[in-house]
Write a structure and sequence with these properties.
Blueprint lengths: L63 E13 L3 H5 L3 H18 L4 E16 L4 H12 L7 E6 L5 E3 L2 E4 L2 E5 L3 E6 L6 H12 L5 E5 L9 E2 L2 E2 L5 E3 L20 H6 L8 E3 L7 E5 L10 E5 L6 E7 L15 E7 L9 E3 L21 E3 L5 E8 L9 E7 L6 H12 L12 E2 L6 E5 L2 E6 L3 E6 L2 H8 L23 E5 L2 E6 L3 E6 L2 H8 L15 E2 L6 E5 L2 E6 L3 E6 L2 H8 L15 E2 L6 E5 L2 E6 L3 E6 L2 H8 L15 E2 L6 E5 L2 E6 L3 E6 L2 H8 L15 E2 L6 E5 L2 E6 L3 E6 L2 H8 L15 E2 L6 E5 L2 E6 L3 E6 L2 H8 L15 E2 L6 E5 L2 E6 L3 E6 L2 H8 L15 E4 L2 E6 L2 E6 L2 E4 L1
Parallel strand pairs: 1-2, 1-3, 3-7, 8-17, 12-14
Antiparallel strand pairs: 4-5, 6-7, 8-11, 9-10, 13-20, 14-15, 15-16, 16-17, 18-19, 19-20, 21-22, 22-23, 23-24, 25-26, 26-27, 28-29, 29-30, 30-31, 32-33, 33-34, 34-35, 36-37, 37-38, 38-39, 40-41, 41-42, 42-43, 44-45, 45-46, 46-47, 48-49, 49-50, 50-51, 52-53, 53-54, 54-55
Helix pairs in contact: 2-4
Protein name: Peptidase M43 pregnancy-associated plasma-A domain-containing protein
GO molecular function, one term: metallopeptidase activity
InterPro entries: LGFP (IPR013207), MetalloPept_cat_dom_sf (IPR024079)
Length: 896
């Protein structure tokens, strides 16, 4: 399926006959005749009279064979290939389709036949308004209006424009209702319908529109060229069940008003019952069929307007259009639009919904339409004759106004007898309201009756004013069920109606609470006596996901189809919710009411995607759905180690991470580590001092784990761990060789105990070390990580200036189990040997150590060293052992 060409496109476009412009996303495709302001005016047309009646009589029946000249036009800037792309078969078929339709509608008196075909090269441009193109081509061809002649022009573009507005599917112009012109873009799936529609204009018809009244009124009186009901207007093209409405792939039968106006048929199709004076029943037959007197019209005895009734079922040209909500009794009358009263308006059961493609235009069995002056049209029954729609029928009952049911008179009189506050009588009992209702006016209000509600007072005042503004009995509330009830909270009043209530107080004014889940929730919460107080606004819908809300003195009720109606009461939680964007925020709609009585007197409210928690110490804070909230709830939420949140979830950290602060810690999240708790305390302090997630530790890998040796705690991070004990404090064990060795030695449970310093680097040769409760770990690139545990060897090593001294870095850990229970540890430049008798002594790398090791070290005749090596001069060094002394001179090593 191809999209229409852009308005400035001049390259070749190959049209697709399956392309339906109405299926394009955001399509504004439409008929574009602008028939109320035609470029070539209707020569015999005259405007409406001041009273709104037609300025000329309906068109007399015509007989004639239209001779059609079919022209394809190469516009300036377009190529021969563009014009060649016009599908001539489709163009011819559209004339054939129009001929079949109008021949059927005129009982065979009218026909359309193509008598000439040719191509024309024009100076007009596709960017010209379609009327300008039509006029230019007409003048270039020297084509003249003549009785029963028509000019049909196809231009090489996907659509037409009117003053720069694109998406127009065709245009039509008429002269004396027997001659006219049609302009079309490339053929598409809609072309047969559009050309037939444009020939409707050639024959003098305007559009089939719908009455749009957002206030719920189903009929409106004509007052000159406007509707007499405030807020009502004509939605042009919006009768989808009519050829002269919106573009579609089928071509439904024109309505009975246009049928009579245009002088179509044989004259026997519409039964005129005149002005009804009594209640009468009539039978309708399928309007798309052939039965005589299958539709009817009547003149309202009061407003004098003529109404047309027809049964729409899938018969004939209504075969695919009269389905669903467009199958039933259709009611039309003359529109305020058009020239000479040649436009129709359909009166639907729901005038507050309108649009080009509205598919609920007809009335069903059991429904009652009431004219502006009270004439009732009841759809008594519809027999669809399943399987044989041509045999379908409908019975309609027409009741003129002031046919008063005795029950209404008696019920109204009973109310009046006990209601002196109504004042003097201002009218008789008058009937003809929707659903056969009646009323009587008084100086201070009215009494309204229906068979479903009985009689109820409607006293003048803010409640009655609000009811009338909402459409009275025709509106969202329907009929009143009881009189006003006053003396309520804060001196307020309310009145019940069929579909809701109106509440009033001096502070809130009169507000509607219509039947539905929001009202149910409001009443369950105690209505005006509950936490919400009086409503301060109407129910408003059209929110995210088709939700609704209503505001009250102390809160709101929000509703969606997935969450139901939930109260958002005034307070810190609601303030935080609204500040976050309410239902449009990440939280979505509430799924619970606000719940209090939590720890420390706190409250919370749950939403589709999170919660808001409040305490007096922390205020209201959002806990939105996700891993952080899951970790918080798993830790016991406000009852757990973290307490209440103290801030909202904040993202945009390193590597896209997030965190949220709580009374007793934080939860930190990254995609690599998940959500982890960093509890308040020394470990968290050390972590934050080290730069938190931006430091070498990165994000936490685990929660804090306590109950370790000596009551200690630890927490793992991407780049290491933090250990804590009461004697060592919180110390970082960062990732690397030192930490690896520490963990291999069983960490805090091993011989080293807890770390007492951080890892410290920048030592000799780029080395590092870390102090522990019972020793140290040293590291250099050459030696790796080695432990020097607390004891005599470590004391001797440190006395020798550790890695800075003659020994350098350790090469091994301390090794015990030597002779006499001795121990030793190797270093880069020697060893330290220990025995209980000799203590810890250094054997530095050199000739003496070499000789000592040749002699079997501690296992030899010398035993353990008893002193460190001393060198009083540069040519003499000595070291004593348990059983001898080794002396070095330039001549060698001697034992004494």
């Amino acid at each position: 399926m191809k999209k229409p060409a852009a308005q400035d496109e001049v390259t070749s476009f190959v049209p697709d006959l399956d392309w339906n412009p109405l299926e394009e996303p955001g399509s504004n495709a439409r008929y574009g005749e602008h028939y109320t302001e035609p470029v070539t005016p209707m020569k015999t047309a005259s405007p409406l009279n001041a009273d709104g009646s037609g300025g000329m009589a309906a068109i007399a029946p015509r007989s004639g064979a239209f001779k059609v000249t079919l022209v394809t036009v190469q516009l300036s800037g377009k190529t021969v290939a563009d014009t060649n792309a016009i599908n001539m078969t489709a163009a011819r078929n559209s004339i054939t389709s129009a001929n079949a339709y109008w021949k059927s509608a005129s009982a065979g008196r009218l026909s359309m036949t193509t008598v000439k075909e040719f191509r024309h090269v024009s100076k007009a441009k596709i960017t010209d308004s379609y009327g300008t193109i039509m006029d230019t081509v007409t003048k270039e061809l020297n084509w003249q209006y003549r009785p029963y002649e028509s000019l049909v022009v196809f231009v090489p573009h996907a659509d037409l424009n009117y003053n720069g507005s694109w998406g127009i599917l065709g245009g039509g112009f008429t002269d004396s209702d027997t001659s006219g012109r049609v302009i079309m873009p490339y053929p598409s799936a809609l072309t047969n319908n559009v050309v037939t529609h444009e020939f409707g204009h050639v024959l003098g018809l305007h559009h089939a529109n719908s009455l749009a009244c957002p206030n719920g009124r189903l009929d409106a009186p004509r007052t000159g060229s406007t509707w007499g009901t405030t807020g009502c207007w004509s939605s042009e093209y919006s009768d989808m069940s009519d050829l002269m409405g919106y573009a579609q792939t089928s071509s439904p039968v024109i309505n009975a008003f246009l049928w009579e106006y245009g002088g179509f048929g044989s004259g026997s199709e519409v039964r005129n019952i005149g002005t009804p004076t009594t209640k009468q029943q009539f039978t309708l037959r399928p309007w798309g069929g052939t039965a005589p007197q299958r539709a009817l019209k009547f003149t309202d005895p009061v407003n004098k307007e003529v109404y047309y009734l027809e049964l729409r079922v899938p018969v004939g040209y209504d075969g695919t259009a009269a389905v669903g909500g467009n199958q039933g009794v259709k009611i039309t009358k003359q529109d305020i639009l058009g020239w000479s009263g040649n436009a129709s308006v359909v009166l639907t059961p729901n005038s507050s919904y309108y649009g080009y493609s509205y598919r609920a235009l007809t009335w069903g069995a059991g429904q009652t339409f009431v004219t502006t002056s009270g004439t009732r049209v009841e759809i008594t029954s519809i027999n669809p004759s399943t399987g044989q729609p041509s045999a379908a029928s409908a019975i309609v009952t027409i009741t003129p106004p002031n046919t008063t049911p005795p029950a209404a008179t008696a019920a109204i009189a009973a109310v009046v007898s006990s209601a002196p506050e109504l004042g003097g009588v201002k009218s008789a009992v008058t009937c003809g309201l929707v659903n056969a209702g009646c009323y009587q006016n008084f100086a201070n209000g009215a009494v309204i009756w229906s068979s479903g509600t009985g009689a109820a007072m409607s006293l003048n005042g803010p409640i009655r004013t609000a009811w009338l503004a909402a459409g009275a009995q025709n509106g969202v509330l329907g009929y009143p069920k009881a009189a006003q009830d006053c003396g309520n909270r804060d001196g307020g009043c309310y009145q019940s109606f069929q579909k809701g209530e109106i509440f009033w107080s001096t502070a809130s004014g009169a507000r509607i609470s219509k039947t539905g889940p929001i009202r149910t929730a409001y009443r369950a919460a105690g209505a005006e006596n509950g936490i919400l107080g009086y409503p301060i606004g109407a129910e408003t819908c059209g929110l995210k996901n088709d939700g609704c809300f209503q505001a009250f003195q102390r809160g709101e009720i929000l509703w969606s189809s997935t969450t139901g109606a939930r109260i958002s009461k005034a307070g810190a939680i609601r303030t935080a919710y609204r500040a976050a964007g309410a239902e449009n925020s990440a939280l979505g709609y509430p799924i619970t009411a606000e719940i209090c009585g939590l720890k420390l007197g706190g409250c919370y409210q749950a939403y589709q995607k999170g919660e808001i928690l409040w305490s007096s110490a922390t205020g209201a804070q959002i806990s939105r759905s996700g891993e952080i909230r899951a970790a918080y709830r798993a830790a016991g939420a406000e009852n757990g180690v973290l307490g209440y949140p103290t801030g909202k979830e904040t993202c945009g950290l390193k590597n896209g991470g997030c965190y949220q602060s709580y009374q007793n810690g934080e939860i930190v999240w990254s995609s690599a580590t998940g959500a982890r708790i960093v509890s308040a305390g020394p470990i968290r302090t050390a972590y934050r001092s080290a730069g938190a997630e931006n430091g070498r530790l990165g994000y936490p890998l685990t929660h804090q784990t306590c109950g370790l040796k000596d009551g200690g705690c630890m927490q793992s991070f991407q780049g290491g761990e933090i250990y804590f004990s009461s004697t060592s404090g919180a110390q970082i064990s960062r990732g690397g060789s030192i930490r690896t060795l520490y963990r291999s030695l069983d960490a805090q449970n091993g011989r080293l105990g807890y770390p007492i310093t951080a890892e410290i680097c920048g030592l000799r040769d780029g080395g590092c070390y870390q102090g522990f409760q019972r020793g140290e770990i040293y590291w250099s690139a050459k030696t790796g990580a080695k432990m020097v545990k607390t004891g005599s060897i470590r004391t001797a090593y440190r006395a020798a200036k550790a890695e800075k001294g003659i020994l350098g870095y350790p090469l091994t850990h301390e090794i015990c189990g030597l002779k006499d229970g001795g121990c030793y540890q190797s270093f880069q430049n020697g060893e330290i040997m220990w025995s209980a008798k000799t203590g810890a002594r250094i054997t530095a790398t050199g000739p003496i150590r070499t000789a000592y090791r040749k002699a079997g070290a501690e296992n030899g005749t010398l035993g353990y060293p008893t002193t460190n090596q001393t060198c009083p001069t540069t040519t003499r060094c000595t070291q004593s052992f348990q059983r001898g002394t080794l002396t070095w001179t330039p001549t060698g090593v001697k034992r004494t």
